Amino acid sequence: xxxxxxxxxxxxxxxxxxxxxxxxxxxALHLLERDREGAKRIAEAMSTAxxxxxxxxxxxxxxxxxxxxxxxxxxxDQRTLCVVETPADVFAVESSAGYRGRYFVLLxxxxxxxxxxxxxxxxxxxxxxxxxxxxxxxILATSATVEGDITAQYISDIAARYDVKSSRxxxxxxxxxxxxxxxxxxxxxxxxxxxxxx
Length: 198
Hints:
Dna Topoisomerase Vi A Subunit, Chain: A, domain 2, 6 strands
């Protein structure tokens, strides 16, 4: 019979994505048996983050300050705005080291059935930024889903009202991918978005 504190720890860990009963139990037991210092660091870091992390007032990404490091960086291209769904998407684009503009984080995508409309995505804030005339292009980096495509089209229509060019991330076959293993939807998009060889 385990203690109620241990049961509560296991239940709490199950709130993490992809963590079920067995994984939560393994994590809890590991931390308590073998890495209590690690458990303390996690608890302290979580407590600190909950108290200090908020959304950047300009891009809506996570930040300890009113403006995040990216929005505060004058060396970035201020005329290009990459629109993403989540803070995790910012990490993904930044890790590519191929983009030096700014971001706008939607914190979701249009999905009326799930209660996500333009108001929940901060599209009024985005429109205000576009209305200032400082942005020349938005890159729509929403997910390759029906909702992601609808969201991208909706934002593209807003951008067109302000004569701001909008583009969509290219989609297709991954580097190192073999055609026989590529799904039909990806292959179809790759064919539609083919480019001429110079």
